[in-house]
Amino acid sequence: MENYKKGQTFFLGLQHVLAMYAGAVIVPLIVGSSLNLTVSQISFLIGADLLTSGIATLLQVWRNRFFGIGLPVVLGCTFTAVFPMISIGKEFGMGAIYGAIITSGLIVFIISHWFGKLVKLFPPVVTGSIVSIIGVTLVPVAMNNLAGGVGSPDFGSTTNLLLGFGVLLFILLLNRIFKGYIQAISVLLGLAVGTVAGILLGIVDFTPVRDASWVHIVMPFQFGMPVFNVSAILTMTIVALVSMVESTGVFLALGEICGRKLTEKDLAHGYRAEGLASIIGGIFNSFPYTTFSQNVGLVQLSKVRGTNVVTICGCMLVVLGLLPKFAALATIIPTAVLGGAMVAMFGMVCAAGIRMLGKADFSDSNNMLIVACSITLGLGVTITPNFFGQFPQSVRILFESGIVTGALTAVVLNMLFNWKDIRK
Fold it and tell me: How far apart are CA 345 and CA 261, in angstroms?
């Protein structure tokens, strides 16, 4: 399944870019608009984000003696960091954001060796629960997008639903009828056909493409030199630790999909690459980076598990960061079309988690409790976003993510019930 020609590999890489593009672009849009940046400044943020996301992805897939997990991992800005960055920016300015990002990345780089030793805390009952949580907590994102996007005036309209479900049906038919390359790029073909349908329906806006410039040079410290504020650094360090927990689940999921048993050293290399990526992000006016869960589902769905495709994806992101006109093309994909593709991709993440849970011993009722509580709390926090709204910001950062809440629940309960097995 991995022996594809160069042209075919290109389109497989493009498929990964389109799968993560919306998530990558929305972060600089939210942060920039919240901090009252100009249109040109927000455009700069988007370019910097794409460029450094590509660099971060390449660092992660490049497995060497110092960093890089060597799995088909795509990195993008963690959503956990969005609101903390906005708070820091409003209180201390843009320089404090980048000073905190650089410092937190350095801290992750330093502690990666010790954090990697926690692999014993992730047996199948824990990893399966975490990966299942990743899948189910992404489902609301997929369904909201399929309906047109939260806040859209035509949310849930017949046009959006027909377009979204039409894309999903098209992807399913391609996987049923074809094998090999066509099956591998089924998501990309679904996005292309859905966008063409959107153009025919008159719901595709080409304004972002017309307004974008042709070339964009990303300069370090565009918004001024970094400022190292203790409060901001502590906040972003907590965000970084949360991201490490999320990444652990994604790493283990990809290891399972790719048939590779990850060691403490592998995990440490993965964390170290993320820390290095955040340092680079802070220098180039961008963001802290973590593994993107949506691309895990794409790896499972396409059955392409080599790193060559993701390397192509990383190179494309670097180029898109320098060529805004081409980068803007991906933004014209209707939200409902993305949602239809996401249903398939995120569902595959859930399926991967269920498969991993099949290796757990469910004759032990304690393992049933671990799965039940972790998935319920993870999903519960996701569908009740203000659950911890009355708690301090430092606590909310830890628990407002359903993935992190569920993951911590699974790890703690496993330590409570299976401590003897962990100590072996």
Answer: 23
Q: Quick one: pLDDT band at residue 13, thresholds 50, 70, 90?
A: confident
DSSP letter string, 109-176: HHHHHHHGGGGGG--HHHHHHHHHHHHHHHHHHHHHHHTT-TT-TTTT-HHHHHHHHHHHHHHHHHHH
DSSP lists the bridge partners of residue 291 as 75
- Cβ pair 255, 131 in contact under 8 A: no
Greatest mean pLDDT among 17-21, 143-147, 402-406: 143-147
CB 395: neighbour CB atoms within 10 A? 12
Residue whose C-alpha is closest to residue 275's, from 115, 118, 106, 113? 106
* Integer Cα distance of 124 and 395 in angstroms: 28
- Per-residue pLDDT band at 39 (split at 50, 70, 90): low
Contacts of 403 (CB under 8 A, 6+ apart): 130, 133, 134, 137, 245, 246, 249, 293, 378
What's the token pair of residue 399? 């628990």
| pLDDT, mean over the chain | 81
pLDDT at 4: 56
User: pTM score, two decimals?
Assistant: 0.67
- Distance between CA atoms of residues 55 and 281, nearest Å: 9
Confidence of residue 103 (pLDDT cuts 50, 70, 90): very high
If one counts every other C-beta atom within 10 angstroms of the C-beta of residue 225, the result is 9
How many Å is the Cα radius of gyration of the chain? 21
Q: Count helices and strands (H / E) in the chain.
A: 19, 2
Query: CA separation (Å) from 99 to 56, 92, 277?
Result: 18, 11, 14
DSSP 90-101: HHH-HHHHHHHH
- Tell me which amino acid residue 19 is: A
- Give pLDDT, residue 307: 78
Residues paired with residue 77 on neighbouring β-strands, in sequence order: 289
**Could you tell me how many residues make up the chain?**
424
| Across 43-65, average pLDDT | 86
Q: How far apart are CA 381 and CA 409, in angstroms?
A: 12
- Return the structure tokens found at 324: 């805004």
Q: Cα–Cα distances in Å, from 40 out to 33, 46, 215?
A: 11, 10, 13
Mean pLDDT of 356-363: 83
- Rounded to 10 degrees, what is the CA torsion of 39, 40, 41, 42? 50
Pick 57 or 386 by higher pLDDT: 57
pLDDT band at 372 (very low <50, low <70, confident <90, very high): very high
